[in-house]
Amino acid sequence: MKSDRTFYFRISSFFVAGIISAGFLLELFNIKHFSLTFPYNLYFILLLIVILLAVKIFFSKTFFFRWLSSLENSLVVIRLC
C-alpha cells in the first residue's frame, strides 16, 4: 500500500508541475490580450459548470477521474500551488 501512495505522489507531482509549467509558457508567449468581461464571464462559468457536471456523470468510474480526485493528488496540488 505504501508503494502505491509513493507512486501516486510521484505521478501527481509530475502531472501538476507539467500543468503549471505549461501555464507559465502559455502566459509567456501569449500575444493576444484575452479578457473575460461581462457577460462573457457568465457564459464561461456556465460552460465550465456544464463540463464539470458532464465529466462527473459520464467519467466518474474511470481510473483517471478517481486519481484526479484522490487525496494524494489533492495534497500535491496544495503543496505545489
How would you sum up this structure, described in words?
Helices cover 78% and strands 0% of the residues. It has four helices and no strands. The mean pLDDT is 86.
Distance between the termini: 26 Å
Shape descriptor: flat
Q: Tell me the radius of gyration.
A: 16 Å
Mean pLDDT: 86
- Helix coverage percent: over 70%
Summarize this entry quickly:
The protein has 81 residues and is mostly helical.
Notable features of this structure?
4 helices; single chain; flat; 78% helix; 81 residues; mainly alpha
Task: Chart the SSEs and their pairings.
Layout: H1 2-28, H2 40-59, H3 63-68, H4 71-80
Helix pairs in contact: 1-4
